[in-house]
Amino acid sequence: MSDIIHLLPDNVANQIAAGEVIQRPASCLKELVENALDAGANNIRILVKDGGRTLLQVIDNGKGMSPTDARMAFERHATSKISQAADLFQLRTMGFRGEALASICAVAHVEVNTRRPEDEVGTHLEIAGSKVITQDVTQCPVGTNIRVKNLFYNVPARRKFLKTDQTEMRNILTEYHRIVLVNPQVQFTLVNNDEIISELPSSSTKQRIEAIFGHTSKPFTAQVVDIQANTELVNIYGFIGKPEMATKNSQQFFFVNGRYMRHPYFHKAITTAYSGLLSPDHNPSYFIYFDIQPDAIDVNIHPTKTEIKFADEQAIFQILLAAVREALGKFNITPSLDFTSETHIEIPQISPQATPIAMPRLQVNPAYNPFKQSAPHKTQTQHWEKLYSQPIADTPASSEEHLLFHFPAIDQSIPIMQWQSKYIIVPSSQGLMMVHPHRAHMAILYKEMLALLSQHKGVSQQLLFPEVIELSPEDLHTLQALQDDLSSIGFGLDQLSPNAYTITSIPMQLGQTNPCETLLQVIHQVQDTGSTATQQWHEAMALALADKMAIPMGKALSDAEMHDLLTRLHLNHPAQYLSNGQTIFIILTPDEIQRRF
Ligand code: ADP
Ligand code: MG
């Protein structure tokens, strides 16, 4: 028998890699602009046509490339940014994988003009489908001018997956904001279909935020408070919105070492600091910048992922919480303020090995409820400063101490009870715990579903009466994109008509839940991620399914059921929050109980 394994040709390998790295015009643009920043440019012009489908062009005044480098840049794993594994731990550049340009030129027509300051003439290069079409000498300014035309011209499936031009442009703007907000010293211009839609001069961070999110009616400076914390472990600076600025859709940005990131855990630190200051459906705005030693964060950052892992998240959580608290308190300069030295928050210098910082305590008056008046939101928060002169109650100020609690093992002999057919009340050595049974169950199921999605091990139950689901064009798109994942966990789907499917089977674990509703919830949750990254899709799917499958709130549970749930919670999901930030359990510590008496 002859051998059947062979290496993939480069253009095929690159096209596969492009599927991961270049998912849509916005991700392509991000890579191009990051390259310009890595090249030291302080003036970057971006031109977009037709939502990036027809043209994405980035013109920078960075250090340019030599003729050889320009050619090399489009090879897979070609990078000037690292040369050995150890460099990964000292990373200060945005790129390092050497994948982006190789991926882009596999799925688009690319044209580059580039010149180094020391060269008389520049290089002109044209590449399509990973093949160099032209390379010659050209007259051009110092820097790099790269044009990506007809993205996905040779990948119809990807092209079909693109949304309307407006939606793609919105994604581009989102990426643009994430970049310009953390590079305020760089001048940016964004042109969409020949119209300048953003012109940002070199400025301070605050001016940059103002230029993007400021309103003429109310100066941005009047709406935010500075935050600052310098410790051995991390430097944090930025701005947080005054509570009255909070809306349902606030601007929330974290950046680390010049890179945008999402961080649900640090987000929790901020919402904890604001607790009692906002209506439940309002969110604080924040623009927070972390500077940290590169080796203290996970270097293996996937280009499409925005979550970043820190070596010492718990300590940073505490520092961030203290800094936000302090900023909110400092801002309050009304005479009624009683933010005396006793409650003033010192941010201790800590080394990475140090034990978590004990948090300062605020006096708590359990009877005080900042939202007890039924007045509209504005009047509730207009005088929010006063909240500092009154004890904050709704969420006890010290609740964040327990953020780091892991759910303990509960001995079978310990008596537990369910209160109002809802919360499970459990005494434990750490304190008195209250568990939200629906979310506890969700946490367990979420992990199970994620495992099924990655291992393709779902088991189906056939529906006795298959159900028909009709879908809007957008939902249809998403369903089709998810079809492999859905079938891997046990959904059986047959296309009935252009916009309808028959559901023939559902995952075993779904039991009696309504198949159409469940499927729609999965589809919508995935759409809400606004991402096309598989991992984010899986997380959204797992969360939607877990929500549908978990025991409903208000269901009376037997002792055995409660013990079983708590044991599984202890074993499977010790953290206190769901991935969407919802609290699974709370603990009243002996200290806290004593304080309340
Ligand atoms: P990475 O950024 O991970 O190194 P890329 O594929 O994005 O990989 O780029 C490959 C290389 O091409 C970079 O390491 C850099 O040397 C060079 N390069 C890309 N874009 C530019 C640019 N705008 N200016 C100067 N050099 C660039
Ligand atoms: Mg790059």
What would you say this structure looks like, in words?
The chain has an eight-stranded mixed β-sheet. A hairpin with a 2-residue loop joins strand 15 (423-428) and strand 16. It starts with 9 loop residues before the first helix and ends with a helix. The protein is built from 16 helices and 20 strands. The protein has 597 residues and is an alpha+beta fold. The site of magnesium ion has 5 residues, from helix 2. Magnesium ion is lined by residues 31, 34-35, 95, 100.
Helices and strands in order:
Layout: H1 10-21, H2 25-38, E1 43-49, E2 55-60, H3 67-72, H4 100-106, E3 109-115, E4 122-128, E5 131-138, E6 143-149, H5 156-161, H6 165-180, E7 187-192, E8 195-200, H7 205-213, E9 224-230, E10 235-241, E11 252-256, E12 259-261, H8 264-273, E13 286-291, H9 313-331, H10 377-382, E14 417-419, E15 423-428, E16 431-435, H11 437-455, E17 460-470, H12 473-488, E18 492-497, E19 500-507, H13 515-529, H14 534-549, H15 559-572, E20 585-588, H16 590-596
Parallel strand pairs: 1-7, 11-13
Antiparallel strand pairs: 1-2, 2-6, 3-4, 3-6, 4-5, 7-8, 9-10, 10-13, 11-12, 14-15, 15-16, 16-20, 17-19, 18-19
The structure holds adenosine-5'-diphosphate and magnesium ion.
